[in-house]
Write a structure and sequence with these properties.
heterodimer; A: alpha/beta; 3 domains; 8-stranded mixed β-sheet; 5-stranded parallel β-sheet; B: 361 residues; mainly beta; SH3 type barrels; 6-stranded mixed β-sheet; 30 strands
Chain lengths: 560, 361
């Protein structure tokens, strides 16, 4: 795509439609204006509104960008959209294989239901495959299955072929050792034409023109073993992701943009996205020419949505763990269901804090579900993406990231306020994307601040001292274990911290003395001396009070 | 803190277009009836169905049955003029031979029946059982798609009132709109005199009310909201009934708005009042109340009539006056504001645009 002087980046999310006007003005690409609205609002209306606002504030800019204010529909668009959630039935010969396959499918953004021949009756597997909400079947086995698994696998393949005959619209993926049964599926295509529609004896006598009524048959796809790839399972994840996502999928777009951003900034970058239907965690390291243009390791989890479809005990616990209100489980479930039905509703007052708690629960599940993306070293830049995080106060978002991600080290926190990472990832030309991001990085990343989070802090009166020296400030604080301190460091400023600990801690690396550069942001520099992972002690009321006190410090308007 | 200057973010020319639209009715909707392994359809594509016409046969105790080898071609298909035979394939209805069960006088022959499931090593396995129940159509319509073990799709000839959530089984009955007290119906009002009816239960329906309605043979409930725990209890009760091999009584529940208490919207209540006394059907996929005929007594509303969808004013209705610009709301959240005048007030109220909805017929 050859970019004109101005274009609109549109992100069509499950809950939110956002549009950003980007133009080449005064020698570089700039974010001119952006806004978002609930998904029901037409994107054309948003674009027209953006142009109207720019015209009312600086009409000469429109002329410079060669935009006809009366024909906003003519502006070039770069679109990305959230792929709708789809369900896959994972059928395996053994429990171990089911768990492996389900993990890959889950990280590829599928809703997963699963069963294995080892654990369940074949009738249970058939019920799963015939469910109306299932769009694909994933059958898998070890590359060199044992005798028991081999025997079960042949029954499983026969069942899979029969299910495909009944529901030709099902995509069938054969992973690992299941691929040796591909021929059974080829034969089932022939029987499809002979399938009878209608039921009992009387119905069996009726003519059923199967060819004209059944949906078109999907091809059988042979995929790699669920252990292949680095990290393990990523090869199968890639295949499943390509089957799930639309070509302009916004989550894959975010992953591509994060890789480009890492390359442009020369930093390791991690993005945490909390969407209405799924969450995404992606991590990229600065690369040379190797890995140029590749999608970095990522996990897209449907149960990392603020209100996932399956409200399991784990989901309710993870939200209750961050809620500042005493709320019983039934009421919590009702509020989450309401959030799912109306993601933009009740966004002020108590509703705003509940949405943030739901988002923190989602981030916790996302981090727990992608352990291979965590660990040391912490990313140098952590970007928050998604409607709830973009609309919450910056300090509360920074605290949410510190609470739920807990990257040990020094990390710059930012927020993709204009939801640009997804649409920019839709660009097919990697060099073009990098050129845009090099110019736009400052505009699109709203600086939240820096997070200093050492791990290995021991209980006691003081762990040492920290001094921040910046252009306008020189502050020194006592490092008291279990506390969170905020030091003022405005956006646009940078400083250098010098930390002296009484014992060895990990702040990127293990040591006692550290000197690190930090960047300013809307909430300054956060020094978090709580445990990694976070452990709050005491009865529930005490823990809730501690959470509320911390949140009130970051969000003083609470209760107003 | 002071509010930010009221920058006009919402288009002042067509501000109503920024309010979420809620479609209330849909004409000739497609209704799905889900089948599972062992279930067979009793209708064919193109058949006209009416309330009470058997749609499908459900096997309540489906299990895997070894059918053995079926030498094809087995199944006679085709009209009388050109009957031909086709080999068996998954989904075909199958009836087994009688099986001796029990001992002495209690020894009975009971042939299992169900659908063929899969073929492995030349032998067929069926999902079959001895107990079947018949699902009858609750609506008038034409069968559009039929697949044994998967489902039956019927294009209803009437109109559907869209709902947010449904639970239970498709059912049909006379629409009963009792007098509501503060928008609610006390559970004691669900008595045996309402057996066989579909009752409008007001703003919220509890697990107790659902249990009582089922015990009184009421065919369905309509409410604005129901708690997740009530819906879960209903699903569990259905599973228990199915496990007991007793044919499930037709009982359906549709929830018009969601999970948090709010009154039924006035246009919907007006529509239900107009339909009171006529036969309606509750269907669960999609969640909908279907009624016959397309000449609906649709209530007339002013074009700027809005309802609060969520937030502390949820359920209240009134007229949209004008956009309020970018305003500061509770907890310091800055959102696009709308000025509305509620029906029972004279003073205008400012609340977030995203909390509003307007109705579209």
């Amino acid at each position: 795509m050859s970019l004109p002087k101005a274009f609109v980046a549109i992100d069509l999310g499950s809950a939110t439609t956002s549009a950003a006007l980007i133009g080449h003005a005064t020698g570089r690409w700039r974010l001119i204006a952006h806004r978002s609205a609930p998904a029901g609002v037409d994107a054309d209306r948003l674009v027209a509104d953006l142009v109207r606002r720019v015209r009312s504030s600086d009409s000469s800019l429109l002329a410079e960008l060669e935009i006809d204010a009366d024909a906003s529909g003519g502006i070039v668009r770069l679109e990305a959209r959230s792929s709708p959630p789809r369900r896959i039935a994972v059928l395996a010969a053994s429990r171990k294989q089911r768990l492996r396959l389900a993990a890959s499918a889950r990280k590829a953004g599928w809703l997963v239901s699963g069963a294995s021949v080892e654990e369940s009756d074949l009738l249970v597997l058939a019920r799963l495959a015939l469910s109306r909400d299932v769009q694909a079947l994933l059958l898998g086995a070890d590359n060199s299955p044992g005798r028991g698994e081999r025997r079960r696998l042949s029954d499983l393949a026969a069942l899979g072929a029969a299910m495909r005959c009944l529901r030709p619209e099902l995509m069938v993926v054969l992973a690992g050792g299941a691929a040796i049964h591909e021929s059974i599926f080829a034969a089932s295509g022939d029987t499809q034409a002979a399938q009878l529609l209608g039921g009992s004896d009387a119905a069996n006598r009726r003519v059923a023109d199967a060819d004209s009524t059944l949906p078109a048959q999907q091809p059988v796809i042979v995929a790699p073993d669920p252990r292949r790839g680095q990290p393990s399972g990523s090869s199968l994840q890639g295949v499943l992701e390509s089957l799930r996502g639309l070509p302009d999928d916004s989550r894959l777009g975010i992953a591509r943009s994060v890789a480009s951003l890492g390359h442009v900034l020369g930093r390791s970058v991690e993005a945490i996205e909390v969407g209405a239907r799924a969450g995404l965690r992606v991590r990229a390291w600065p690369t040379g020419t190797t890995g140029f243009g590749l999608i970095p390791p990522h996990a897209c989890l449907t149960d990392a949505a603020p209100a996932p479809g399956d409200l399991s005990d784990d989901v309710l616990d993870s939200v209750a763990a961050w809620s500042t209100e005493a709320v019983d489980r039934h009421r919590l479930a009702d509020r989450l269901r309401e959030l799912d039905l109306a993601p933009w509703g009740d966004a002020d007052g108590d509703g705003a804090t509940f949405r943030l708690a739901a988002a923190k629960g989602a981030i916790s599940r996302l981090v727990d579900g992608s352990p291979e993306l965590g660990g040391s070293p912490a990313p140098e830049l952590l970007v928050a993406v998604g409607g709830i995080l973009a609309s919450s106060p910056p300090a509360a978002v920074a605290l949410a990231l510190a609470d739920a991600v807990r990257p040990p080290g020094v990390t710059v926190l930012a927020c993709d306020q204009a939801r640009l990472l997804g649409p920019l990832g839709a660009l097919t030309d990697e060099e073009e994307r990098q050129g845009l991001l090099a110019d736009l990085a400052e505009d699109l990343l709203l600086p939240l601040g820096s997070l200093v989070l050492p791990s290995g802090i021991k209980p006691g009166r003081s762990a040492g001292r920290l001094r921040l020296v910046s252009g306008t400030a020189d502050a020194e604080i006592d490092l008291r274990p279990g506390t969170v301190r905020v030091v003022d460091l405005p956006p646009g400023q940078s400083g250098r911290i010098s930390a002296d600990f009484r014992y060895n801690v990990r702040l990127g690396s293990w040591g006692r003395h550290f000197e690190v550069d930090v960047a300013g942001g809307l909430c300054g520099m956060i020094v978090d001396l709580r445990d990694v992972p976070l452990r709050l002690e005491g009865p529930p009321e005490t823990r809730r009070a501690a959470r509320e006190a911390l949140l009130r410090a970051a969000w003083p308007e609470l209760g107003q | 803190m002071r509010d930010r200057p009221p920058e006009m973010r919402v288009d002042p020319v067509e501000p109503l277009q920024w309010i979420a639209r809620r479609r209330i009715v849909v004409r000739t909707p497609l209704i799905n009836f889900t089948l599972g392994p062992g279930d067979g359809a009793l209708v064919s594509e193109g058949d006209a169905v009416a309330p009470g016409v058997p749609l499908c046969e459900r096997t309540l105790d489906a299990r895997l049955v070894d059918v053995g080898r079926l030498s094809g071609p087995t199944w006679p298909v085709g009209g009388e003029a050109g009957e031909r035979r086709r080999p068996p394939c998954p989904g075909n209805w199958w009836r087994g031979a009688g099986e001796r069960r029990g001992s002495g006088e209690r020894k009975v022959a009971w042939p299992p029946s169900g659908t063929l499931l899969y073929q492995a090593g030349g032998r067929w396995t069926a999902a079959a059982g001895e107990y079947q129940s018949i699902l009858v159509s609750p609506i008038h319509g034409v069968v559009r798609a039929v697949r044994n073990g998967v489902g039956v799709t019927v294009e209803a000839s009437g109109t559907g009132l869209l709902a947010a959530v449904a639970a239970g089984e498709p059912s049909r009955g006379c629409l009963d709109l009792p007098g509501l007290t503060d928008g609610d119906l006390p559970p004691s009002a669900l008595d045996v005199s309402r057996a066989g009816r579909v009752v409008v239960a007001g703003s919220r329906v509890s697990a107790q009310a659902i249990g009582r309605a089922r015990a009184m043979s009421i065919h369905g409930l309509i409410a604005a909201s129901a708690g997740e725990n009530s819906l879960r209890d209903l699903r569990a009760a259905e599973l228990r009934q199915r496990a007991s091999l007793a044919p499930p009584a037709p009982f359906g529940l549709i929830v018009l708005d969601g999970y948090q208490r709010r009154p039924i919207a006035s246009p919907i209540l007006a529509l239900l009042a107009a339909l009171a006394g006529s036969d309606v059907a509750i269907v669960t996929d999609p969640p909908m109340l279907v009624f016959d005929g397309s000449d609906l007594p649709l209530p007339e509303m002013p074009p700027d009539w809005i309802r609060v969808r969520s937030g502390r004013y949820a359920g209240r209705e009134g007229r949209f006056l004008e956009p309020a610009g970018y305003r500061r709301f509770g907890a310091g959240m800055h959102l696009d504001g709308a000025i509305v005048c509620f029906a029972d007030e004279t003073e205008p109220t400012t609340l977030p645009f995203a909390d509003l909805e307007r109705f579209v017929f």
